[in-house]
Amino acid sequence: MISPSECGCPPPAPAFTPKDFRSELKPIWCPGCGDYGVVTALYRALVAIGRPPHEIAFISGIGCSSRIPGYTTAYGFNTVHGRALPVAQGIKMANPDLLVLVAGGDGDGFSIGGGHVPHAIRRNLDLTYIVMDNHIYGLTKGQLSPTTPRGSVTASSTHGSMEDPVNPLLYTLAYGAGFVAQGVPADMEGLTRIIEEAIRYPGFSFVNVQSPCVTFGDPEDQLKVQKTKLKKLAEMGHDSSDRLRAMDLAQEYSRSLYTGVFYRNPNPPPTYDSQIRARQKTLQPHPPEGGE
Question: What is 12-283's CATH number?
Answer without folding.
Answer: 3.40.50.970
